[in-house]
């Protein structure tokens, strides 16, 4: 009347049916049953192995679904990041072409960042000023900005 999964999921109904049938059978032998309870259900090795393999297969399917969803999210993240970087590059390009002083400002900020990193490092570093972009007073520093200005005027 019940399959193996129903024995587990409908335990109360199974217990009630068994109690009714045992009570009727016991009356044939003039016995009175007060209570019947199912204390343990066990299944054959094949069934147990099949249930375990089904659970393993479900877990592997869930894991594969998770990997796919993670890959989709990573793909979307990379697309958004690339779009942001492209827009930042466009805006920087517009700022440089509109105001050549912007390039000087960027170089000064980069020099500050490099100097801060070198100052906080416990290692000794010996570099010349041009390697650190600290040559802001030199003629070469202004040449790039002047070049941009000249192109804009043409």
Strand-helix topology:
Blueprint (H helix, E strand, L loop, with lengths): L3 H6 L1 H18 L16 H54 L2 H20 L18 H15 L1
Helix pairs in contact: 4-5
Please, how many helices? 5
The main sheet comes to: none
Strand elements, count: 0
Oligomer: single chain
Low-confidence stretches: none
Helical amount: over 70%
Give the overall shape. Answer: rod-shaped
β-strand percent reads under 5%
What is the string of helix and strand elements?
HHHHH
- Mean pLDDT metric: 81
Structural class: mainly alpha
> In whole angstroms, how far apart are the ends?
93 Å
Radius of gyration, whole Å: 39 Å
Structural notes for this entry:
There is one protein chain. This protein is an all-alpha fold and 154 residues long. The chain is 73% helix and 0% strand. It is built from five helices and no strands. Helix 4 runs antiparallel to helix 5. The longest helix is centred in the middle third of the chain and has 54 residues. The chain is rod-shaped. 1% of the residues are buried. The model has no long low-confidence stretch (mean pLDDT 81).
What attributes characterize this protein structure?
154 residues; 73% helix; mainly alpha
Question: What can be said about this structure in brief?
Answer:
With 154 residues, this protein is mainly alpha-helical. The chain contains 5 helices and no strands.
């Amino acid at each position: 009347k019940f399959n193996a999964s129903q024995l587990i999921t409908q335990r109360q109904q199974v217990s009630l049916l068994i109690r009714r049938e045992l009570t009727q059978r016991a009356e044939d032998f003039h016995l009175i049953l007060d209570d019947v309870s199912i204390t343990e259900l066990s299944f054959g090795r094949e069934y147990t192995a099949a249930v375990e393999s089904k659970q393993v297969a479900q877990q592997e399917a869930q894991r594969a679904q998770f990997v796919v969803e993670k890959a989709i999210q990573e793909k979307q993240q990379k697309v958004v990041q690339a779009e942001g970087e492209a827009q930042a590059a466009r805006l920087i390009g517009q700022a440089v072409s509109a105001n050549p002083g912007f390039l000087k400002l960027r170089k000064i900020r980069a020099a500050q960042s490099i100097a801060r990193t070198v100052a906080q490092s416990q290692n000794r570093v010996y570099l010349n000023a041009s390697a650190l972009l600290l040559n802001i007073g030199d003629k070469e520093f202004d040449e790039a900005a002047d070049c941009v200005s000249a192109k804009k005027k043409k």
